[in-house]
Amino acid sequence: MLLELKGVTVYYGDAPAVWDISLSQQEGTVVSVIGANGAGKSTILKAISGLVPLRSGAIEMDGRRIDGIDTDKIVRSGVALVPEGRKLFPYMTVASNLKLGAYLRDDKQAVQEDLEVVFGLFPRLKERLKQKAGSLSGGEQQMLAIGRALMTRPRLLMMDEPSLGLAPIVIDHLAENISEINQRGVSVLLVEQNAGLVQRVAQRCYVIEVGKIVLEGHIEEMMSNDSVRRAFLG
Q: Given this model, what pLDDT does residue 112 score?
């Protein structure tokens, strides 16, 4: 198993954000976490990234615990996050934002190879290397956020609401990009509320409600559940 969360509980101050979360992901798969706004989806990704401490439970990559260690070590273990809202450096160029994704790496030849992979996925970025990130369109900014994360050479790419604010045609391209990234051997953990995107790219799905996992299963089973579609996916 590539990733396992075992009874993970996270508090913000005195308030529980998620509790007793158990989730697993096999290598090479796309798994989606869906739920209403404020249900705790982003907190799960932050916990895996080491951005919030656990109150209890454990998080493992390849059977080794990664909770409680520094975020840079989690990145080195093969975990990358594309955060909600992209969190780019708007006054820096596209090139500089991409280079920041590789700041922990010293394998210059491999970094250049990965940069070419990113340009193969997102040719628009190569055309805009000297342009400031903040001047890009929403779709281009999302490409850059994904490209920056790929520059860490992740085994697990976590994406938090990547379709947010994007036009339908851009979401179609995003689905193709996620599938191609997965075909290149990168596992993807996707937090998303767009039903069409989830159905196109994910194999398994977890439903979270008020901080707890309430349903899990193969994507076909989940999408045939009327209550799931009404409550979480529209």
A: 92
Residues in the chain predicted with pLDDT less than 70, given as ranges, are 227-234
Any bridge partners for residue 31, and if so which? Answer: 189, 204
Phi, then psi, of 21 in degrees rounded to 5:
-85, 125
The one-letter code for the residue type at 27 is: E
Rounded distance, CA 209 to CA 206, Å?
Answer: 10
Question: How buried is 96 (Cβ within 10 angstroms: 0-12 exposed, 13-18 middle, 19+ buried)?
Answer: middle
Q: For position 232, what pLDDT does the model report?
A: 55
Q: Which residues pair with 79 in a beta bridge?
A: 156
- How does 152-163 read in b/e, with b if 16+ C-beta sit within 10 Å? bbbbbbbbbbbb
Provide the token pair at 189. 């953990």
Contact 114, 151 (CB under 8 A): yes
Tokens 């590539």 locate to 2
